[in-house]
Amino acid sequence: MDRRAFLTAARKKVSTKKVTVPAYDERVDSDLTPYAGAWTRQEVAHLLKRTMFGATKADIDHFLTLSPSQAIDELLNNIPVVSPPVRDYGLIADDDGVLHDDVGVAQGQSWVNDFNTTSFSEIRGSINRLRVESLRKWWSGLIINQNRSIWEKMVLFWHHHFSVQVEEVDNATMMWRHHNLLRSNALGNVKQLVKDVTIDPAMLIHLNGYLNTRLAPDENFARELQELFSVGKGPGSDYTENDVIAAARVLTGWRINSNTYTSYLDASSHDTGTKSFSAFYNNTTISNSGETEVDALVDMIFNTTESARFICRKLYTWFVYYQIDEQTETDVIEPLAQLLISSNYEVKPVLSALLKSEHFFDPLNQACYIKSPMDMIAGTLREFSVPFPVYTNYATGYPLFYSIYQRAAEMQQTLFQPPDVSGWQAYYQDPMYYEIWVNSNSLPKRADFTDALVGDDVIDCRAFAAYSSNPADPNQLIDDITALLLRYPLSANSKTYVKNNFLITAFAVAAVIGLVLMGYQLIVKKQQFDKRAIWGGIMIGVPNYFSIWCLVMVLKEYAANSSMIIPVNNMGIVLFSTLTAWIMFREHLSKTNWLGIILSLGAIALIAYG
Over the stretch 218-229, which tens digit does the pLDDT of each residue have? Predict the structure, then answer.
């Protein structure tokens, strides 16, 4: 199986057409009371699917040995230590086709501290593009190889929150530093993270902060800082247009050192006047204090309770559900906001309270979440235990990791390129929210992905079946597999339906194999079949296919009530086939051929009574 060929998919322009999904009105009435209910595979899988990418059997088994509180503590405290992305590309051709080397970095070495200035100038753009690709491969590799931690989900959350686009920044090193800033503070202090991102070179380029001067103020970042990154647009967000103007004045003069890719304040471009804010910000004034004005601005913004509510709503939408009604606002969001404030905007206590709550484990908050493309792709590959190289293996791993990135991009989630400054619409666009992931463009691509998993032998079915406690028992196999992959157990009727459909597939496969073998004997071996053999085959084949047709009709008509009819029908096939074979071929069959027939019929019998 060529996993790279399976994963690789051509990038195409995506459609924005959406599927309308009716709203579900019933909501929960639970709160942040610590969860003390059942701790089964179902609850563990719910926790892991929300906090990680997929829930593997090994991870579920591990966390079942812990209490809910211990499990969540491990997810929050297991901090991964990662090495940076490396050069995985070879020589680069210029416009004339002449090959050049990236002399700044050797293959297999990290490029994150190289400023792409030593190589031939004509290929610097190509080098930058290749480094961005390696950055995407690297992060996809971390996601598919993640440890038992919430970390990667939180890195993706902050990437969505700040939504810096690599096509705007157009600098691999700056994007790496921005990403590393989010990664280093994934479970840290929200307020400090906003301060750092405000003067981060990638953000300064992305929202024109580096163009903001006292003579020509640019309000772009000042507006998004309040509307998207801190206070939001909720009913309690009463900041004014003058607040945007005053914030823009605070942020004037920040520039980027092109030699070191660091930011600094150019005093000659900074507005030194006093900046006055509205009653929403308690009529705060910020006087000239140079670089520390940024700290004063962010502190002022986060002194409002609304900023804490806004952050908690975004975390809730990311980890729980998009619908926040009045009761959820009162019983969940407001207490979390107060906890965030009392914790001085440390995010970990808030996540701990949310994930350990009755509200998070409420049955109505389980299996209500349409997976993002990366959740769907990485989660599925992980849950089926598809093997991948470690994330540091650039030679064989990076091509596979890049294919994961491409699959997700096809389904409209492109790492390092959210669609706009607000991030991915599935987490904010009312009333569709998660349903936006499922549209006329993305749904067929999801189906193509899962079809390829099965059709291209990406999954080692035998190894996967070994996860069952008794894979030889079809009933136990179905129980174990559905318990691992599905959020809720199948009913007895559904299990019967699955088993019976496998029976039909088994007969169809057997028929195809028989036709291929017969063709091989006729064409390759030039074997002649007498009339008795031909008519015997017809006598065996017709009743078998007729019985299969009857079996299909029974399933359609009686569905789960056909549990007795189907084994009897199949045993009829076995007995009739055996009798006919003995009558027609007893003079021609060798002991070896008879043994094969008996074993095949025995297999059918086992399936029928399984």
Answer: 999 999 999 999
- pTM exceeds 0.70: yes
| 455: Cα within 13 Å, side-chain hemisphere | 9
Q: How many residues does the chain have?
A: 610
Residue 10 pLDDT: 41
Q: Provide the 3-class DSSP secondary structure of residue 255.
A: strand
Q: Are residues 577 and 498 in the same domain?
A: yes
Same domain, 92 and 54: no
Q: Is the dihedral of CA 519, 521, 525, 527 positive or negative?
A: negative
Interhelix angle 172-184/190-198, nearest 10 degrees: 160
The whole-number pLDDT of residue 319 equals 98
Residues 6+ apart with CB under 8 A from 80: 142, 146, 147, 149, 151, 152
Same domain for 183 and 313 = yes
Among the three residues 459, 479, 511, which one is the final residue of a domain in this structure?
459
Which residues neighbour 219 within 8 Å (Cβ) at sequence distance 6 or greater? Answer: 244, 245, 247, 248
Domain assignment present for residue 481? The answer is no
Owning domain of residue 156: 83-346
| 323 shares its domain with 422 | no
520 and 449, same domain (yes or no):
no
Which of these, 237, 200, 207, 234, lies nearest to 222 by C-alpha position?
Answer: 207
pLDDT tens for 407-422 read 999 999 999 999 999 9
